[in-house]
Design goal:
By secondary structure, the chain is mainly beta. It has 1 helix and 20 strands.
Length: about 300
């Protein structure tokens, strides 16, 4: 090969590698705002007993700010399951603007605890107690890499429990643990014979940013007869079942509505108000559809079945 050509190829490879490494390092160096006020986290929960077992989805979202001891926190709400709209405050979360570390305070607690530290290196250990009140413990960082989700390169850590339970979890920058936003640290627990909730999906502005590779959908409703909603808080979608047109009762202002199919994929988006209060899914396949409506920081959930 011509020496001049070889020099050009070598120089080109060097430039490419330099740009690639710089890009990875810069993605590590930037602090991703966490949690994002637009974020919605869906967790799959599982329970069993008396010869029955069932699973359902709990939804978590940011519901404004709160000042506590001179520090600004984001309020995290959950609605119990993907259809129950009676939300309640479950935790406060803040991110240190200098270190990027994320701290949380459990509901009805005053102790701030570390939830995430993306500055850890391979081999580092850290003690984490989940902000949802479950057990945690000591973790060790096993791997670190970068993944692209939602058009953003995010740092990802793989952590194992030190106690040798075999449990592990990923931390994804800007998203949280694969045990859920408030579930970091569960891999450090002593208990291994229960079914811990795991993160099904993470969405921003109704776009799926993360979806568990084994999750068939983002929303699984609570079984019939469990977690009944009050008449006052329940959005009324009718007719249900429907052949195509769905109306929403009680709209007194503009709501942004997103419809998902049974796999958690977005079907369409529409703005609704008192004079435009219906959805048309007649061209969609028969099945179950999940509806999320928002107005400001208020979020409502519902489900309709299309058939016939």
């Amino acid at each position: 090969m011509n020496p001049r050509c070889w020099l050009k190829i070598t120089f080109g490879v060097f430039i490419y590698w330099t740009i690639y490494c710089t890009g990875v390092q810069s993605s590590y160096g930037q602090i991703t705002r966490f949690p994002d006020s637009r974020g919605v986290w869906t967790n799959l929960k599982y329970t069993s007993g008396l010869g029955t077992s069932y699973s359902w989805t709990s939804v978590y979202h940011v519901g404004g700010d709160s000042l506590f001891r001179g520090l600004n926190y984001m309020k995290i709400y959950t609605n119990g399951d993907s259809l129950n709209i009676s939300t309640y405050l479950i935790a406060l979360i803040r991110q240190d603007p200098e270190t990027g570390k994320v701290y949380g305070i459990r509901w009805r607690d005053t102790v701030e605890r570390l939830l995430y530290d993306f500055n850890l290196s391979i081999g580092d250990t850290v003690r984490i107690w989940p902000a949802d009140g479950s057990d945690g413990g000591d973790l060790v960082v096993d791997e670190i890499d970068t993944v692209k989700m939602g058009g953003v390169y995010r740092k990802r850590l793989l952590l194992y429990g030190i106690m040798g339970s075999g449990l592990h979890e990923y931390w994804i920058e800007g998203i949280g643990s694969t045990y859920g936003l408030l579930g970091s640290g569960r891999s450090g627990t002593y208990v291994t014979d229960i079914h811990y909730p795991y993160l099904q999906c993470y969405l921003e502005d109704d776009n799926i940013i993360y979806k568990d590779p084994y999750a068939k959908r983002c929303f699984i409703p609570l079984p019939s007869g469990m977690g009944q909603q009050s008449e006052q808080d329940t959005p009324e979608f009718y007719p249900n079942p429907t052949r195509g047109e769905v109306r929403i009762k009680g709209l007194v202002r503009t709501w942004e509505c997103t419809v998902y199919d049974g796999q958690g994929e977005v079907v369409f988006f529409k703005k609704l108000n008192s004079s435009n209060d219906f959805l048309d899914i007649k061209h969609q396949p028969d099945g179950t559809y999940h509806i999320v409506v928002r107005s400001g920081r208020e979020v409502r959930y519902g489900r309709v079945v299309k058939g016939g």
